[in-house]
Amino acid sequence: MRSYAKSIALYEKTKKHLAGGVSSNVRYSSTPVPLFFARGEGARLYDVDGNVHIDYVLGNGPAILGHAPKPVIDAVAASLGEGQLFAAQHPRETELAERLCRLLPGAEVVRFATSGTEAVLMALRLARAFTGRDKILKFEGHYHGWSDQAYISARPPLNEAGPADAPVPVAGSPGIPASVLGDTVVAGWNDLDLLSRALDRHKGEIACVIMEPVMVNGGAIPPRPGYLEGVRDLCRAHGALFVCDEVITGFRVGLGGAQARFRISADLSIYAKAVAAGFPLAMVAGRRDVMDALLDKGVMHGGTYNGNVQSMAAALAALDVLERDGGAIYRTMEARGKQLMAGLAALGAKHKIALRVQGMPTIFQTFFTKGPAPNNYRESVACDRDMALAFHTALQEEGVRVNQQTKWFLSAAHDEPIIAETLAAADCAMAMLARH
Ligand SMILES: Cc1ncc(COP(=O)(O)O)c(C=O)c1O
């Protein structure tokens, strides 16, 4: 048995002065306590108890090049002496914005922010200002950050969520004012008929429809063929903007994110996480006529740390690697991801465990279900969560770190030997599950 004695002791000590002992509630989802890590390198993390973990959490997505990637670290280190923040512009922003507009579908202009949560807020404000409408339509199971406006029906308990064809908005946290719920319409995802009916019920009221184009947070679920195009068309027909939240999928499922992959282009898109390979950077990208409202209509967006020198340097260096040889790194990551997905599915069959492996090769999830792989949030939460938790715990014991939903983020540092090591560990973990 691995020991976590030092993590447990540090957690107890930390709780005395750091509220709840963590800096993000998401970090409670680790066993036996929020773990303390000493360092990360490539695909591995080293915790304070001396345990080594092959890491498939990757900081919840950003570490697309693995931990402490040398080209990014070197570029950031070289920039440190230039200063950090000038409350003014600097040339790296020009260069990065130019490159991003070249790479991202529908990105006529971009605006930098620091976290995904804030960038979502900017997009929602722009959509409201542009359309003159107040209501936002979002989907059940989609996470768009923890703000009052967005943390609604991200993981609603089904006994509070109303009927599947007309869900009621559920505040995700105490402290979210009821007034916000009145401006939020929630629909089931991956079903054009449900969306069409929701838009009809709120004719002329919806400023934008926001979604994760691949629903990663509520289960790694790809859109059904034609779904994204259908959403875009419905948005057009109803005069609502189509907003794609690519905070996870951006620079992860390909250089141009999910939109390039599914050949679609939203009116506004939000990117963060992988774009700066671990440094804090987020952005809204999209139509010039909408984004120009920041200047022309005085739509307010601020942020002390936006466009800081080190995040710009990190993103430019990360893009140098990601863009090399026409995005060759993505082809390698895809191949390894497919190998891992197939390997895990085969192990499920070997151990007679009802298991579905679904998602994209660089971000997927293992679902414990005898039925088909889930298509939406409600089907995702109907899968066996106790089994997922047991698998998470068994994998951790074998030196593989996935989150408690058993989601797998891949990086370029997950090479062939790491994949082989992972599958050997998963074999032992599944044998343990099968025994119990
Ligand atoms: C799809 C999506 N949108 C927005 C966010 C919020 O980003 P941040 O944690 O940087 O505020 C996240 C975070 O996980 C996310 O997954």
> How many structural domains does the protein architecture include?
2
Biggest pleated sheet: 7 strands, mixed
Shape: globular
Gap from first CA to last CA = 17 Å
**Strand composition percent:** 5-15%
Oligomer: single chain
Architecture of the largest domain, according to CATH? Answer: 3-Layer(aba) Sandwich
Helix percentage range: 25-40%
SSE succession: HEEEHHEHEHEHEHEHEEHHHEEHHEEH
Index terms:
2 domains; 436 residues; binds pyridoxal-5'-phosphate; seven-stranded mixed sheet; four-stranded mixed sheet; Aspartate Aminotransferase, domain 1; Aspartate Aminotransferase, domain 2; 14 helices; alpha/beta
Structural description of this entry:
By secondary structure, the protein is of the alpha/beta class. It has 14 helices and 14 strands. The protein folds into two domains: 173 residues, Aspartate Aminotransferase, domain 1 (Alpha-Beta Complex); 252 residues, Aspartate Aminotransferase, domain 2, CATH 3.40.640. The strands form three sheets. It has a seven-stranded mixed sheet, sandwiched between helices. Strands 1-2-3-13 form a four-stranded mixed sheet. Strands 11-12-14 form a three-stranded antiparallel sheet. Helix 7 links the parallel strand 7 and strand 8. The radius of gyration is 21 Å and the shape is globular. It starts with a helix and ends with a helix. The relative contact order is 0.15. Bound molecules: pyridoxal-5'-phosphate. The site of pyridoxal-5'-phosphate (PLP) has 15 residues, from helix 4.
Short overview:
The model has no long low-confidence stretch (mean pLDDT 97).
